[in-house]
Amino acid sequence: MTRNRTRRVTTSVSGGQKDFAVFSQEILQSIHVDAPLASFLRHATHRFLEFFTCDAVEIWVKREDDCLCCKAERRPGKSLTVEIQQRVCRGTSIDACTESCRRRVVGASHIALPLVAAGETLGLLQMASREADSFPPEDQRSCEGLAQTLALALVSRFAHAALRERIKELTCLYQLAQLAETPAITAEQLFGGIANLLPASWQYP
How far apart are CA 31 and CA 40, in angstroms? Predict the structure, then answer.
């Protein structure tokens, strides 16, 4: 009888054994947490910083006309800082945004990984450490796998957000139809009801 076993990829990163499979599962599980994108990126940068025990992590994401950059940094003698910046980049290509919106993370060792899912580049993951060789070549494939997992998590969150917006719109249309069919409703009551119902369907009420 043959038993199938799942192989867990563990490697030494900054002096400790790291389980990439477990961390990848953690990223995927975070999809189900109902939180704004900024909160998701804040948590993700913090977790990448802890997992790799590095000194700086930046996750940069472009969504439609908005660029969101979250950077977590650990400095000697200071507490951990997490900063989020948002810019509007209308009509700008993903490559142009990558160069203008992202901030550089510096250190003795550095790795930059594109966040790609379904052939679309969503942004960039950067990590840096003051220690040399913190991201050895033999760990490159595992790091790329984590970046891809993060990209899939982002795509899933975008899809869920779009679905929630469609549900809000359809609910509003249904309520408007019910309002219009109200017997003996006056024009003033109709317009007042419409004004009350529309804000709930907006993306930003």
Answer: 9
What is the C-alpha to C-alpha distance for residues 63 and 59, in angstroms, rounded to an integer?
13
Residues 6+ apart with CB under 8 A from 92: 100
Q: In this model, does residue 185 exceed pLDDT 60?
A: yes
Residue positions counted in the chain: 205
Q: Which helix (H) or strand (E) holds 141?
A: helix 140-180
Radius of gyration of the chain measured on its C-alpha atoms: 22
Quick one: pLDDT at residue 194?
93
65 within 8 A of 89, measured Cβ to Cβ: yes
User: Closest Cα to residue 19, out of 28, 27, 11?
Assistant: 11
CATH code (residue 137): 3.30.450.40
Q: Rounded CA gap, 60 and 112, in Å?
A: 11
Q: Is residue 88 part of a domain?
A: yes
Structural domain range at position 116: 10-162
* pLDDT value for 107: 67
Which tens digits make up the pLDDT trace of 109-142?
Answer: 889 999 998 888 899 999 999 888 888 887 888 8
Do 133 and 153 belong to one domain? yes
| Total number of domains in the chain | 2
Question: What confidence tier does 100 reach under pLDDT thresholds 50, 70, 90?
Answer: low
